[in-house]
Amino acid sequence: MFFNTTINSLNENWTNIYYLLHHVYEEISHQAIRLLQHIEKNRETTIGDLAKYLGVTHNTASEHIKRLITKGFVSKKRSVVDERKVCVILTERGSEILYRNTRLDDEKLNKVLEGLTKKDIELIEKAFSLLSREAKKCF
Predict the structure, then answer these.
(1) pTM of the model
(2) How do residues 21-64 score in pLDDT, each as one tens digit?
(3) Contact 108, 21 (CB under 8 A)
(4) Domains, the chain, ranges and CATH?
């Protein structure tokens, strides 16, 4: 029961934080953002890895990547470790669009932080760091 209350509280607070502090979105699909996030978080990502991540066929993932290449968000390169492997990597433009569609707006966040004490800011940083660390262990 304790976890249900905590989970509800975390979700409610997170959705409020994100709703109020996010960047203005640029035109890009949710699935494209998920692909860009996966590429960013998992270096040496292949089309096969992306297909598995989305739960789609290799051909479907390949079509998604072709669209992202056309838009200039990703490119392909041979793996340094295994030259037989072709990896999908973020371009500078892809990194920028990913940042604007998944991160909090620095200016808005700065306004919020200005109203907090140093101790509160350190507490927030520690809580987010702890939550992030534990999430990485689970998945």
Answers:
(1) 0.82
(2) 998 877 899 999 999 999 999 988 999 999 999 999 999 999 99
(3) yes
(4) 1-22+104-139 (no CATH), 29-103 (1.10.10.10)
